[in-house]
Amino acid sequence: MALIKLLTTSPDTPYFRPPPLHVQVLKVEDQPRVVTWEFNENMARAATIKKNRVAIISDGHSLARVTLYEEFSSKMVEGKAYIIRGHTLRGQSPPFTLNVGRETKFFKSSTIIVPEQLTEEAEAMINPASPLKQVTECREVKGFMSVEGEVVEINAVQPIRSGKDVIPMRRMILDQDTSRIQINLWREAAVLEVNLGERVRVTHMKCSNTDYGLQLQSSNYTKIEKPKDEVFFADIVGVMEPEEEGSSSSSSGSSAEPLLQVLTESGSILLIDRATWQPFEERLTISKLKVEMSVEGRRITKMRLVNEA
User: Fold this and answer.
1) Which of 20, 82, 89, 286 has its CA 20 to 30 A from that of 301?
2) Peptide bond between residue 95 and the one before it cis (omega within 30 degrees of 0)
3) Do 138 and 217 form a contact (C-beta atoms < 8 A)?
């Protein structure tokens, strides 16, 4: 039976046993999965991790994605061909997915010639595209998307019940030019490092229309990428304590220390943490500071006086 027919046809009987499959393994990739989490003081960490793998297989005519759970993760090798027996179908209705279990047998077999088009599609299935979009375009995007902007608000990690599991979730607001959007980071994405004031690119998200408006939801593929620091020379003429809680630039519900705001002679307002600022505080009472600084978005990550080595 062809792979696509097996996965798209409802069995005639509940006792149906799928026939053997002759397939070529085109791609295999590690996909570890956190199955239990520990929560402590607005933070979360992985307690139990399953080292699963994902394989893209083909019979030469179509593709299928197979999850190889930790105990079966070594059963398929990329580039090899197998005859598979003892597999089952997962799902209530088509399209089904192949399920590998303890009864599944893998027999090494002859190579299948797979068309180049299917090979390219297999790559896209294991590493799906996530084009960079403007926040104003989110509503029209059907698949994955990436957005880039400044983190203007970020909450602490919260435990959220999902079925029988408790998983981490974190909300942040991204500012892009004159538009802002809420991003909900789930599971592994919720514990990725991100700080208030940073400019970031968040990948592989999908748009959802909620009771609170348009929001972006993370996926298993989501990454938070940070552009390299930009180096600037500036004259700092003032500094201000963090704004009161509830303001748009505060870290609502976050355990991170609020950031100071510094004013440059050109009128720009940048953010800096107290430890980085402390060595310069006394000097500002004497005169403005001529500095060289590394900046991520609006956040100063490093700073030195220009007349110091």
Assistant:
1) 286
2) yes
3) no
The model's pTM: 0.73
And the tokens for 187? 């599971």
* Identity of residue 226: K
Question: What number of other Cβ atoms are within 10 A of residue 187's Cβ?
Answer: 21
Q: Identify the helix (H) or strand (E) that includes residue 146.
A: strand 145-154
β-pair partners for 154: 172
57 close to 24: Cβ distance less than 8 angstroms: yes
pLDDT digits 0-9 by tens, 49-72: 999 999 999 999 999 999 999 999
Query: What does DSSP assign to residue 13?
Result: S
Pairing status of strand 81-85 against strand 21-30: antiparallel
Burial of 206 (C-beta count, 10 Å sphere; 0-12/13-18/19+): middle
Residue 166's beta-bridge partner residues? 161
> Encoding tokens for residue 206?
């999908």
Q: Are 180 and 152 in contact (CB under 8 A)?
A: yes
